[in-house]
Amino acid sequence: MPTNKPIKHFLQFSDFTLDEFNHVIERARIIKRKFKAYEVYHPLVDRTLVMVFEKNSTRTRLSFEAGMHQLGGAAIYLNTRDSQLGRGEPVEDAGQVMSRMCDIIMVRTFGQDIIERFAANSRVPVINGLTNEHHPCQVLADLFTFVEHRGSIAGKTVAWVGDANNMLYSWLQAAEVFGFHLNVSTPKGYDIDHALVSTGRYSVFADPSEACAGAHLVTTDVWTSMGYEQENAARLAAFDGFIVDAAKMARAAPDALFMHCLPAHRGEEVSAEVIDGPQSVVWDEAENRLHVQKALIEYLLLGRVAGN
Ligand code: CP
Ligand code: NVA
User: Which of 17, 34, 160, 212 has a beta carbon 3.0–4.6 Å from 251's, enabling a disulfide?
Assistant: First the structure.
């Protein structure tokens, strides 16, 4: 039912309160259980998700498309190459037009300014499916995964080893909302831009092994994110020594988890022994994209649904 209420978007992690995240995570648990039990849950019959991809994807496309289908709705995939976005249609016009034909929109693009401009012109909720600056859906899935394995993350320590990229900035926002601490180690020249961070809940370590000391979760990501491919050779050299390997995991808490949003490069940012080892929960993380995003879509379209 259309109302005059301001539209709620999920453009970066800090757009939601702890209370909203706790609701979404609890709904993700319930929706996951229903799915595993083959219980039909179709609250979004006749509703449509549009997915706009300006960068490649496997997990994000699959989890949003399958998730919307499982909620009883439909999902439409658009990319830059085949749509008028690739021929210069202004992002503001695209936001206006797309949001008149569907109920919710996911956008994966380059600069955060692009999704902000799109959302400012949208009549329906917009979800960030990754920008250069943020990847909030992935960190939401990672938090759900941590809670499933270990319970509350409040007061815990998370080690980030590697590039100061979109994942790290979403983790930093999550630290502020959920009340945990981040130990961050990035190579020289690829450091955090402190001006972009609005939390004090992090410490910076020159030595990546020191960052892992005592951590309850160690996480990393590719050294070269999408859109930065021309820097790959320089990055390979600069990130030497930043692999998350068994020696670094040994510095963490004995029951520490390892996470990686994937896709991963074994032998670069993580050793095969770690990502394929007993502390790794990367497949749960990937699967949980499906469940948390279904809960997120439900919340953005239907508000606080109750019941089991
Ligand atoms: N982790 C993640 O967002 O993966 P994709 O790039 O495959 O969507
Ligand atoms: N930091 C990576 C994440 C991919 C899911 C990138 O932006 O390419």
Answer: 212
Cβ atoms 104, 74 nearer than 8 A = no
145 and 251 assigned to the same domain? yes
Ligand nearest to the CA of 229: 2
Regarding whether 211 and 77 lie in a shared domain, the answer is: no
Whether residues 169 and 65 share a domain: the answer is no
* Same domain (yes/no): 149, 65: no
Q: Which domain holds residue 69?
A: 13-135+289-302
Model confidence over 213-223: pLDDT tens digits? 999 999 999 99
Residue with tokens 């992690």: 13
The label of the residue with tokens 């030497």 reads 240
Rounded to the nearest 10°, the torsion over CA 35, 145, 22, 175 is: -160
Pocket test for ligand 1, best of 58, 64, 221 (most atoms within 8 A of CB): 58
* 166 & 256 share domain: yes
pLDDT in tens, 272-295: 999 999 999 999 999 999 999 999
Pocket-testing residue among 54, 107, 115, 135, ligand 2, by greatest number of atoms within 8 A of Cβ? 135
Q: Does residue 222's CB lie within 6 angstroms of at least one atom of ligand 2? A: yes
Is 0.70 surpassed by the pTM of this model?
yes
Please state the length of the chain.
308
pLDDT tens, residue by residue, 135-168: 999 999 999 999 999 999 999 999 999 999 999 9
Q: What angle do CA 25, 261, 38 make, to 5 degrees?
A: 50
Residue 147 and residue 272 share a domain: yes
Instruction: Report the 10 Å Cβ neighbour count for 2.
Output: 6
Question: Is any atom of ligand 2 closer than 6 Å to the C-beta of 261?
Answer: yes
Number of structural domains, the chain?
2
pLDDT of 1 > 90? The answer is no
- What number does the ligand 1 atom closest to the CA of 129 have? 3
